[in-house]
Amino acid sequence: MAWRDELALRSRRQADYGWRVLARVLSWAEDRGLVAANPRARGGRLYRGSRADKVWTADDETNFLAKAPSHPHLPLLLAIWTGQRPGDLLRLAWSAYDGRTIRLRQSKTGARVVIPVGAPLKAMLDATPKRSTLVLVNSDGQPWSPDGFRSSWRKACAAAGVIGVTFHDLRGTAVTRLALAGCSEMEIATLTGHSLRDVGAILDAHYLNRDPALAENAVRKLEKRTKTPN
Q: With b meaning 16 or more CB within 10 Å and e meaning fewer, what string describes 176-207?
């Protein structure tokens, strides 16, 4: 921990990265009986980044679709309407789409999800030429590499004047929009592949507590249940 804390004087994030690498080494050694215990087990994190408030607004989406080049439009709608991770969307094959649903297995958790395709996304999918076995391709019709996609996405956001949010933030944005539409946590988890605990954490700590639309919805619901005095 002293070594970790010394690294933290220069960068807390780098100190945490070194700590995680050490943890894997020690965990491997403990599993094989090379060490009696993993002394790093309760070290904790020093750096805690936050994506609170990092939600795509309706204006962000409108500006992106109006001003960004056309080839990133489908990634935007896929992310908003499915709530899936960037890596899973970049690997999404046309064979996973049957005209009504998208079926995929999430690479991070192994969870299998069946996603009904909303009308805006269906319209764009059905109008997209199949130039590859993968759904998402660059302007040359080739599948994106992760680095290539990030570079293209940054340029598209700059062209559209969308700042302060990333492609990954669309996953949380999807959770938020589903909740604001009245979906339960179980419904959201079934669609996005989150655990119920993760959905609750997202809604509680990062997104919904920042959205003034919730307060408006709450007051309108209270008005409907409140009897008007005679």
A: bbbbeeebebeebbbbbbbeeebbeebbeebb
Residue 7 token pair:
């690294």
Nearest to 162 by CA among 59, 84, 74: 59
Secondary structure class of 179 (helix, strand, coil):
helix
Q: Tens of pLDDT along the chain (230 residues)?
A: 788 888 888 888 888 888 888 888 887 777 777 776 666 655 555 545 555 558 899 999 999 999 999 999 999 999 999 999 999 999 999 999 999 999 999 998 888 899 999 999 999 999 999 999 999 999 999 999 989 999 999 999 999 999 989 999 999 889 888 888 888 888 988 899 888 888 877 777 555 545 566 667 777 777 787 866 55
Q: Taking the model in full, what pTM does it have?
A: 0.69
